[in-house]
Amino acid sequence: MKNNKYWLLSPYSYIQLGFILLLLLLVLVMAGSVPLKIIACFISAAAIGFSLLFAGAVRENLYRYVTWISQSFDTSNKDALNSIPVPVVTVTEQGEIIWYNEQFREVILLGADAQGVKLPRVFKGFDETWLAADNEFEIKKDKKVYLVSVGVHDLEENKQYALYFNDITDLKKTENQYTVSRPAVLLIVFDNEEELLKVRENERVRVISAVESLLGKWVEDTNCISRINARDRSFIMMEEQYLEKIISSRFSVLNEARRLVIEGGNPVTLSIGVGRGGNNFSECEYWANQALEMALGRGGDQACVKDMDGYSFYGGVSKSVEKQSKVRTRMVAQALVELINTADKCFVMGHRFSDLDAIGAAIGMAAIIEALQKETEQTVHIVVDENATLAQPLINSYRETRGVSWFIPPDAALDAMTDDSLLIVVDTHSPEVIESKAVYNAAQTVVTIDHHRLSVKRIQNSVIFFHEPYASSTCEMVTELAPYMHETAIARPEAEALLSGIMLDTKSFVLKTGARTFEAAAYLRRRGADTIEVKRFFSGSLQTYIEKSQLVSSARLYGDCAISSTAEEVEGVRVIASQAADELLNINGVTASFVLYMTGTQVNISARSLGKFNVQVVMEKLGGGGHMTMAAAQLPDTTLENGVAKLKAAIDEFRREQVQEEAEK
Predict the structure, then answer these.
(1) pLDDT in tens, 144-184
(2) Max CA-CA distance within the chain?
């Protein structure tokens, strides 16, 4: 190894002394004052002395440093490291190069010398913390990739690290080729099948042909294996490299499909489930089925991608299409009756901070269960924490009218539950927000009835998972089940409870209201529901009205969104916040409203919209969920100011996605 460039200190010292003498000469020639000349000579002498002392100290330290290096590597070690056929370099704890073998000099340094140079100057992006991490790491240099192994040598005063560079460039190319050729499976469903049954045959053929042609063109450049069938489900297998392009375009076929219009004016929508990154095609197909179920459960008109890390969603800008067929409802009703008849006890439970929809659905289901079990000794219970419910007026009214003792707290339900008990969860499908996790975990048989758009964290062990995202409310779903389970189970008190839940979630038949919603309301009216009595469940105190008015008046516009917040933890703040969010939608130009309030150290967000702005997507970005027109989120350990900032960031991100999708259209 060449040593002629090893820390050239002497030339720098000579140059420094030369500058000092030159300055002294200029002062002596130009200065006229003798004292000034004396002062200049004194300063120059001090500077020269300091420079000589500093140079001597540097030489002494350098000598000790080189001696230390020499002691660190004896002749056999140097010969051994030089004989290793990979580049090797030793560095200090600060990443300063102290020695390297000939391979490192030729391959990494390309013949140059780098003693005393720090590694970040040789390798861009090098982090000194990698040395102490005790792990291998990858680094790039001149279009090559190296896997670096670190060896530690403890000396008396310091540590030094030996880095061994293994060229894995070809291996990385092979790995990349393996990655881009991984299998992926896509399952595609045509959402408008039921609508096609209502149109003429030639129109049906035209739409199906257009959809199949669209899908065929969409994948014609992907070198895939496909079976396109708009009447059933399309099956596509392709490599990861082609799927990446599809994902980067955010599944543009969804927007292209919406340009196709069925007779009557409804646009064509597709639901796509993708399984990627599995060990084989079979696993990818299984994931694709799960993803498709998730896409359909969230209302359709979207793509869902499932891999080992979870789910990703694309699209979902259209409202859920209401299904007119009640075949599935009849099948669920029959299966549910069989489960009820074989259970020794039945428990009905909603979500935490239960509202009129959860309690109304629970009352309706409990009445059906009691009607089925009149001739047996089976019992039914509604599990609810009455200290934290938003539907206390309904509970009090029903308890006084019926005189029942159905309502029990979670701890009492846990004590009463047996292995043969049936638990029916209503108005939620997330185990994270149910009234009691302990009761849920103790139940051997679980049924889920819910209308919220499907979330990733869902109840997985339901023997019946009755989920209809197009339904206005869970009360609507229970109302449809009732005639198929027991014709006379629903009387006036139950009808009013169910109608209150429908009115709550539809905002008195304004939002998310379909033909089946009015059919359910008509059935409840025939069963004796009094709309005036139902209206009383929504009544509040004067103080509640004042607090709501203050929230509305303090709102600020953020684009077309109204945002209001309060740090006061007043009684009934959850109800007040949701009502204030509803009121804010009455302001001209407001398409979505968000009300933030504190409970302890947690920020809660109540979100509402009129349908054009998907508040569910925004709340999902903050860890919440719900519907397109009504959603919520909780931000634990967050200040109100940070909560507002996070909300605005989520709104901005949603708007950017909207702009991108509009541009793709």
Answers:
(1) 999 999 888 766 567 788 889 999 999 989 888 888 888 99
(2) 125
